[in-house]
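Minimal example, chain plus zinc ion.
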Amino acid sequence: MRTLLTFLCLSSSFFVARATEPPALQALIAEDMPYLLEFYKDRHENPEISLMEKETAATLAAELRKIGFEVTEDFGGYGIVGILKNGPGPTILYRTDMDALPMYEKTGLPYKSKLTTQYNGQEVGTMHSCGHDMHMTSWLGAARAMVKMKDQWHGTLMLIGQPAEEIGKGARLMLQAGLYQKFGVPDYGMGMHCSPTIETGKVGFGKGYTMATTESVDILVKGVGAHGASPHMSIDPVVTASMMVMELQTIVSRNLKPTESAVITVGAIEGGIKHNIIPDHVTLKLTLRTFNEEVRQMVHRRIEEIAYGVAKASGVPDDLLPEITFPDEFTPANYNNEALVDIMTAAASQVIGKDNVVYAEPLMVGEDFSMYGQTAEKVPTVLYWLGTAPAERLASGNVPGLHSPYYFPAPETSIKTAVAVNTSVLLDLFTKK
Ligand SMILES: [Zn+2]
Ligand SMILES: [Zn+2]
């Protein structure tokens, strides 16, 4: 991701003055750093994959209870909800995700992952290669700071430990379990994600749509199998599927308005078993990324037209037309509430300086944090980027991305920055209403 060092120019002068000014907050965080660093390394060593976050959730729940939160566990999978009531005032939701990915870590760090798991019938490593361990640590750090500064704010802090972000299920699980009905509708919702390309010490914000709707689509291409030496006796699904792959490329290049964006990637083609057998089916596995609903509908329509059209042109009879499976559930695009971005960038600038608050352009990745702001209650939400890359890494040009077995955040500066920004934002939101 390219980042522009453009500060979203905002004044912080309209905020109610806070008792805790940045130096005091920084000192408080510095004091807590040894604890947080140890917590971070322990989380990094013990990653659990989606829907298996049992120990992780129990650890977070215990940490919150220790500092006075009322904690509900197993709320939507292994989801946890920690509530700290501190007098009358707004309710603010702050979410961390908890899950890791099924892959072997190759960072060589002294605190690298020591766990493996069963995944699709195989033993694989587990790794926090998306930085969710950093998210949990920053979240806990902010919780600890807010408890220590309890005399300086009023309201209800709602901390969520969300499972299964990597498979786009966790937010839905927690919302369907009745998050807002049981714990109240928050006035604001916030979350943070590690950025592998923003320098550690900085944070990145975008307004409006910042992340895409993501969908997985399967196309089952059917045909008639035959001996590889007798192609005239087949309706070859390998060739039909190949033509579809090429035609699908024209949706973005020819059907999409040039000022809009979308991605259609055929990530997998599965079919056949042997050189000399023409199979009777091939499966195409696609990922779709879009920002707005109109484009999403157009992409769906064109996928259907191309799949059926190419099949018919290949001589596929009506009873063997492709089967297209669109997902019933998908992760909607993340929308950052403009007014809340203004508040958050101002609060971030107060503690880390305005030069360290940068513009982050939209990305075609997906994040199910988006769902907390897209229920009927229309909670204003923001998901921002935490810079995690050391300057030397960025200068070297060798910058591993999220989900890379080589990715890891610079721990100390990233934790310090995140805790400072999150605490500052929370204090401002609590004193604003
Ligand atoms: Zn991820
Ligand atoms: Zn992630």
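Residues 1-16 have pLDDT under 50 and may be disordered. Residues 130, 166, 402-403 surround zinc ion (ligand 1) (CB under 6 Å).
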